[in-house]
Design goal:
This protein is 58% helix and 0% strand. It is mostly helical. The two termini are 40 Å apart. The chain has 5 helices and no strands. 8% of the residues are buried. It is elongated, with a radius of gyration of 21 Å. Helix 1 packs across helix 2. This is Transposase Tc1-like domain-containing protein. It comes from Trichonephila clavipes.
Length: 92
């Protein structure tokens, strides 16, 4: 849209983002040639993929299992949101 000559205001309205977000994205695109996020951004994982599968497997085997039981079995200090997120990703 910017390469077609659209204004920042018009692009922001079209993609439902702030003008600042559009400007930052455009500047990164022209500077680096990409709009992708940098690798390594975000919070570091507290559980491994194996532990993630263990959480889901426990819920599948025993649907009445409590989160404290899952936390004890996994052996990591994980917050309830982590357990909820993994179960939601597995549609449980």
């Amino acid at each position: 849209m910017k390469t077609a000559g659209w204004s920042m205001h018009r692009v922001a309205g079209q993609v439902d983002r702030s003008e600042c977000a559009v400007r930052n994205c455009w500047e990164q695109c022209t500077r680096e040639g990409t709009h992708a996020r940098k690798t390594g951004s975000g919070v570091t994982r507290k559980t491994t993929r194996r532990e993630d599968r263990r959480i889901v497997r426990q819920a599948l085997v025993d649907p009445t299992v409590t989160r404290s039981t899952i936390r004890a079995d996994v052996g990591e200090a994980i917050v309830p949101q982590t357990i909820y997120r993994h179960l939601a990703e597995a549609n449980l």
